[in-house]
Design brief:
By secondary structure, the chain is an alpha+beta fold. The protein has a domain of 255 residues: Sandwich (Jelly Rolls), CATH 2.60.120.200. Helices cover 19% and strands 39% of the residues. The chain is built from six helices and 17 strands. The strands form two sheets. Strands 1, 2, 4, 5, 8, 13, 14, 15 and 17 form a nine-stranded antiparallel β-sheet that branches. Strands 3, 6, 7, 9, 10, 11, 12 and 16 form an eight-stranded antiparallel β-sheet that branches. The protein is globular. It starts with a strand and ends with a helix. GO terms for molecular function: carbohydrate binding. It comes from Nyssa sinensis.
Length: 370
């Protein structure tokens, strides 16, 4: 079950627009005796109207149904037994094909930052997962939660320590990816560039070498123990953080000491485009086999964007020329009503969403007095 929605909020009305509206209303009230339409003595009011749009992505997956098309699967990844299986669960197949690679991403991109306003999104995600080595001491390689340019797909040679995020044909390609990405890794194989020689977590930017990492000594992946991860990004502090526990009860995990936390300051605008693909990627390499399953996944993001609209409308600068009630055989009241109806329609067309309701109320009061 997933949702994607946005919400518009009016936050700024340009003073020129208010002046246009005020002039029209004053003219209406001040000159009721005139029956004609707008004459040639008018002023043209130009300006802009801006508002803020909240671009929000929210979804929850308590289970993963193969018939749900909100998740895109690549490589060996698939939905099986109500979970995301990132890599094959068949060791024979992994050995046969010299490893296994897979990706599972949300089908809709997320709006990470807004070029017009420069604003960054806040986001947070919580997922539960299992890495199961089938009680083997030699295992690898792990998986990652990642963000990459919208439309990013599985690189050609990206298994092992590449987590399907970048090509790993050479050490230079692995450490200096030409494919932009930001990832939080759950690493179960100590590569030569890793700081820790045991299971660990890290935050990676365009490289398989982490910018910052921390040991994950309590992992218990030999027994396939379930773990919980909370990842968040604060646009104000530009802080990307991870909390990893062995239980969805944070209090119990913190009391037992079975948790790992990590944070890194990064301006995502400098590393990724406005719209990004996001999700999970995992890999194994040859004989270092293990299973990577995502059990549940929740995600939410919010981005404030600015949008501007131009407007142009005529507004009175002087009273229109009066016309006798006998001219053209017009009825005075009928002519007056038509005149001011056109004025109202003109103003409403200029600022429909801002003052339509106010104009209707004023018109009703005016008609009542007459």
């Amino acid at each position: 079950m997933s949702q994607l929605w946005g919400k518009e909020e009016w936050t700024d009305i340009h003073p020129q627009l208010l002046a246009c509206f005020a002039n029209a209303v004053v003219a209406w009230w001040k000159f009721p005796r005139y029956n004609s339409g707008i004459n040639s003595k008018t002023a043209h009011c130009c300006g802009w109207l801006s508002w803020r749009f909240t671009d929000t992505t929210v979804f929850k997956f308590p289970i993963f149904d193969p018939n749900n098309h909100d998740i895109l699967y690549e490589g060996d990844a698939c939905a099986s037994n109500n979970v995301i299986q990132l890599t094959t669960n068949q060791q024979d197949n992994a050995l046969k094909f010299n490893g296994s690679v897979g990706r599972a991403t949300y089908t809709k991109p997320v709006h990470l930052w807004d070029k017009a306003s420069g604003n960054l999104a806040d986001f947070k995600t919580h997922f539960s997962f299992v890495i199961d080595t089938q009680k083997q001491s030699f295992h690898g390689d792990g998986f990652a939660f990642f963000l990459a340019p919208n439309g990013s797909c599985l690189p050609n040679v990206s298994g092992g320590g590449g987590y399907t995020l970048t090509n790993v044909l050479s050490r230079n390609q692995a450490l200096n990816s030409n494919i932009p990405f930001v990832a939080v890794e759950f690493d179960t194989f100590p590569n030569q560039w890793d700081t820790y020689r045991s299971d660990h977590v890290g935050i990676n930017v365009n490289s398989t070498q982490s910018q910052i990492s921390a040991p994950w000594l309590w992992s218990d992946i030999e027994n396939g123990k379930r773990a919980e991860a909370w990842i968040s990004y604060d646009s104000s502090s530009k802080n990307l953080s991870l909390l990893l526990t062995d239980d969805d009860d944070c209090g119990a995990a913190l009391s037992s000491g079975n948790f790992t936390s990590l944070s890194y300051t990064i301006d995502l605008r400098e590393n990724l485009p406005e719209w990004v693909t996001f999700g999970f990627s995992g890999s194994t390499n040859g004989s270092s086999f293990e299973i990577h399953n995502i059990i549940t996944w929740n995600f939410s993001s919010s981005l404030q964007t600015s949008q501007t609209k131009n407007y142009y409308t005529p507004v009175f600068t002087s009273p229109p020329t009066p016309i006798s009630s006998n001219d053209h055989g017009h009825d005075p009241e009928r002519s007056k009503n038509k005149t001011w109806l056109w004025v109202v329609l003109g103003v409403v067309g200029c600022c429909t969403s801002v003052s339509g309701t106010a104009l209707v109320k004023i018109y009703c009061c005016k008609s009542g007095k007459n």
